[in-house]
Write a structure and sequence with these properties.
Blueprint lengths: L1 E11 L2 E12 L5 E5 L6 H8 L7 E6 L2 E2 L7 E4 L11 H11 L6 H10 L15 H13 L5 E5 L7 H18 L2 E6 L2 H7 L2 E6 L4 E7 L14 H17 L10
Parallel strand pairs: 3-8, 3-9, 6-7, 7-8
Antiparallel strand pairs: 1-2, 1-4, 4-5, 9-10
Helix pairs in contact: 2-4
This protein binds adenosine-5'-triphosphate.
Protein name: ABC transporter ATP-binding protein
Keywords: ATP-binding, Nucleotide-binding
Length: about 260
């Protein structure tokens, strides 16, 4: 995917908000890219535009030769809230994208994915009967069931407890290694970004711009306890220093 000069102004009753300023970035096929930055720096605006859910004021986003101006079958999105419909059981929730596209349900692929994320046997359960981590795993199955090439994840594990978050990070690392999907993942956590990414893009706020890009060459699979190793902590501090250098004192960014 190519992002070329992406610029976005929101028009509000109190004036216009400059959310993205001339953001250009090539997302390489098959890479795991994490976007990090303080609240309000335009991460979601950028990701939603990549998903065809928001229009840009200027610039463009392309997938191959196609300009992204509306949702695209090759692009799936996962949000912090699993967004399962409460009145549908797991099977019916996962079948939804097929219904919307009026396509036959690929049960074989869904079963394979359910087994992969340890939800096999839970198909008749309703969202309220599942933990937050299970709901998020179901939303991952729902997104992957239609076999997109690009997965856009907007702070998908931000609402989960630390243990579940570690489990989900391991799971998404494994899925990425097995499937070769391109993943763009937004997070507030520097450690989560370094743990997952091939490249970490740091954005700065007001207006949202790319401040720096860091290559993360740590071999995979990366175990969770890698985050306590001195060289990992050094990377965290290095990225944190670059953020502190370029931000105003009111911006917040978790260091976890
Ligand atoms: N629909 C909207 N209408 C008006 N302004 C908006 C809208 N959505 C976002 N903004 C503004 O655009 C800027 C960027 O917001 P965005 O949600 O993209 O940032 P973010 O980095 O994802 O923040 P967070 O980390 O808090 O989710 C902010 O100043 C925000 O208030």
């Amino acid at each position: 995917m190519v992002i070329a000069g992406a610029t976005k102004y929101y028009q509000t009753r109190t004036g216009s908000v400059h959310a993205l300023d001339n953001v250009s970035l090539d997302v390489r096929d098959g890479e795991f890219l994490c976007i990090l930055g303080p609240s309000g720096c335009g991460k979601s605006t950028l990701l939603w535009s990549m998903g065809g859910l928001h229009g840009l004021t200027d610039g463009e986003i392309r997938l191959g030769a196609e300009k992204i101006i509306k949702p695209h079958p090759e692009i799936a999105m996962i949000f912090q809230d699993a967004n399962l419909l409460p009145w549908r059981n797991l099977a019916a929730n996962i079948a939804l994208p097929f219904e919307l596209k009026r396509k036959p349900v690929d049960q074989q692929r869904i079963d394979m994915l359910l087994k992969r994320v340890n939800l096999w046997g839970f198909e008749s359960k309703f969202p309220r009967e599942l933990s937050g981590g299970m709901q998020q795993r179901a939303s991952i199955v729902r997104s992957l069931s239609v076999n997109p090439s690009l997965l856009l994840m907007d702070e998908p594990f931000g609402a989960l407890d630390a243990f579940t978050r570690d489990e989900m990070n391991l799971l998404i690392q494994e899925i990425w290694m097995e499937t070769g999907k391109t993943i763009v993942f937004i997070t507030h956590s520097i450690s989560e970004a370094i743990f997952l990414a091939d490249r970490v893009v740091v954005m700065s706020a007001r207006p949202g711009r790319i401040a720096s890009v860091f290559d993360i060459d740590i071999p995979r699979p990366r175990p969770v306890d890698i985050q306590t190793r001195p060289d990992f902590i050094e990377r965290v501090l290095h990225i944190k220093a670059s953020i502190d250098h370029g931000r105003s004192p009111s911006d917040g960014l978790a260091i976890t």
